[in-house]
Amino acid sequence: xxxxxxxxALYLAVIAAAACLFASLDASAAPGATVAADDAEPSWHHDVxxxxxxxxxxxxxxxxxxxxxxxxxxxxxxxxxxxxAAALLEEIDRAxxxxxxxxxxxxxxxxRADTPHGIIEPFEPAxxxxxxxxxxxxxIWELPTRSDxxxxxxxxxxxxxxxxxxxxxxxRLALVEGRFDDAWHDYQTLMALSRHMTQGRSTSRxxxxxxxxxxxxxxxxxxxxxxxxxxxxxxxxxxxxxLLDARTAFExxxxxxxxxxxxxxxxxxxxRDELDVEGFIRFITAPGGLRDDDADVPLRDVExxxxxxxxxxxxxxxxxxxxxxxxDEADIDAMAxxxxxxxxxxxxxxxxxxxxxKWGLLPRGEAADHLHSGMIQEVEGRLHREDPLMLFPxxxxxxxxxxxxxxxxxxxxxxxxxIEAIRMYIAEHGTAPDTxxxxxxxxxxxxxxxxxxxxxxxxGNTVIIASAPDGEDAPYIPGFRFTxxxxx
Length: 488
What we know:
Elements lengths: L1 H21 L23 E7 L21 E4 H12 L4 H10 L4 H7 L9 H11 L1 E3 L6 H4 L11 H17 L3 H18 L5 H21 L9 H5 L9 H8 L1 H6 L15 H8 L16 H24 L4 H6 L2 H24 L14 H12 L7 H36 L25 E5 L2 E5 L13 E7 L2
Helix pairs in contact: 1-14, 2-5, 3-7, 4-7, 5-8, 7-8, 7-9, 8-9, 9-18, 14-16, 16-18
């Protein structure tokens, strides 16, 4: 408790000092977005060359799916299997993990010669559990978020990267050895695990899920270059639109302010007058959250003094802000001082958060004209100018980042579908199409982020498919370009 009191005093000292110091800062000191030079050469974030062969659609057409089909799924909660896998991975020593990290993403042609025999064996028991979980019919993490807060321990997160790396290496070794069906089984496992990671209330799982799907797409780029590789157009085309739907997690992230500062059991009190001056002082002197075991600890004089100093400094600004929001002055004057200040910070933070969050919740493509990579800096710069102590829009920031990453995945999937449509076309016609419009046997997707067709060039047996370069059409999403060399 002495450590907590010392940290509390320091925290409040910083708040009080910053309130005085930043009040005199010039608005020009606020951070802002940088702009690229107009004469910069076009570039693409993902610029890859592939060597491919023609391939007709498999028979049956849906032989390959990127998620385990219903007939393979069994009753049960996938989360239980993933947690068992996490426990098994605790036994993996660092030397073994470092060995697998060194080789998992090396070029396919080097894998056979440079991969130590049996390197994947220590991971097999855990990977078996993950495969079983990926083929269960539901995933409920059952973590006590409401009672214990958003920082409740999530043991599987410590090991998700180990699982991803091990599955990537095992599937790539299967490709090298010509065992495509075994590699595909691991793709399904990693895709299902990634989808399950987005289910529930935690955004801390959602971002590793994006990494898992991206890893599978990288694997597919390797797989389609192998001799006798099947055509994966229908496998990619039949993925669900809501592949990684983390909406529930982001709804909980909107409540992060309450869980961070007040604790989930007390958060709603901040919107009422139930939190008296004593409660408010405890609120701002417990940056880790107001907890029941703090309730009987007397407040120190320094904590009380500095909290009241903070209220005195911030009350005039808070009062003017509420007036600007349309709150009647008489109603404001009837509020307790701490109530006015708290409403200012909570509601101001929420308004800033929603200014970003709203765009991340629109359907894909509708927000493209409004999103750009400097939006976060613009919002945070405005907050900094208005009040340097205003909490930055955490939920909006991470939702914007998640939207950007998931839109990159959607763009990549669409381009891989086109690549497979071209392989299908060549298998039938003997040559690549002159334009994408020549492909009529299957739909050719547009860029899901802009609604515009992808760029297409053909020069003999070489084809280039590209989105707009970085920063051109959908400036918040990096560009993708594939250069395809076709062999007969």
